[in-house]
Amino acid sequence: MIEYDVKDNVAEIRLNNPPINGITGDFMDRLMDALRRADADPEVRAVIIGSAIARRFCGGLDIPEFLRNAPEQAHAAVSKLYVELHELQANLGKPTIAAITGSVRGGGISIAITCDMIVAADDATFGYPEMEVGLLPAIHYTHLPRIVGRYRAFDLLFTGRTFDAREAMALGLVSRLAPEAQVQDEARALARVLAAKSPTLMRMGKRAFTRATDNGYRQGAASAVDLITAVFATRDGQEGLAAFAEKRKPKWRTD
User: Where are the alpha helices (DSSP H) in the chain?
Assistant: First the structure.
């Protein structure tokens, strides 16, 4: 599910869970293990998270797997995505860069935003489709309004529309754009710049930056996990997930 290698003081982590890099509890465990490995290696001074699957960074939660989960399993899986990954990245004393090609949706954006910078292909696409499948983009209620503003965040989160990389860049969701074929090279070049800095100053600076920009994320993340678990238990939550898995339109309750 996760590929890992190190070159020129940069650890490259590639998501590889075909067909869409769907997020499961096991997938999250392996991703976090790779980040811990990079953190423990003194030769690693920067990290890139990308995808081994063409035209896909991450499609979000693995819906069939989520449907099979009991509520407590769903809670644990979302907690890994919303809370544990963020804490790991916040405490990682090395800069991380998300290298996005193709499509990234929902939980995939949750992974990307835990990184310190995002390099995206100029034809990449983004979206928050959770409400279409009986879920809510709960964690994004915490961070997205602070990045793009209340009204633009509401637009993206409640319409679920797809938007392109240039809009993402204009909104402040992306650090840099590059042609798709050059995204990995752009991320590597950026990683080498960061890796050349003092490891001590990078660690201290990143810790201070994270504290200054936390903006109550931890409290929001815990609430978001509880909200998703509650939604999962509703009839419409189950109907939306089932309809997605069965490739049909959901039948929402009207009462």
Answer: 25-40, 63-68, 71-79, 85-91, 107-113, 138-148, 150-159, 165-171, 183-195, 199-213, 217-232, 235-245
The whole-angstrom separation of Cα 30 and Cα 177 is 28
Phi, psi of 234 (to 5 degrees): -80, 160
Q: Which residues contact 248 (CB under 8 A, 6 or more apart)?
A: none
* Helices 217-232 and 71-79, axial angle in degrees (round to 10): 150
Per the CB < 8 A criterion, the answer to whether 58 and 111 are in contact is yes
Q: Distance of CA 133 to CAs 150, 162, 212, 237, Å? A: 23, 15, 35, 7
What phi and psi values does residue 237 have, to the nearest 5 degrees? -60, -45
| Structure confidence by residue, pLDDT tens digits, 83-128 | 999 999 999 999 999 999 999 999 999 999 999 999 999 999 999 9
User: 93 near 73, Cβ under 8 Å?
Assistant: no
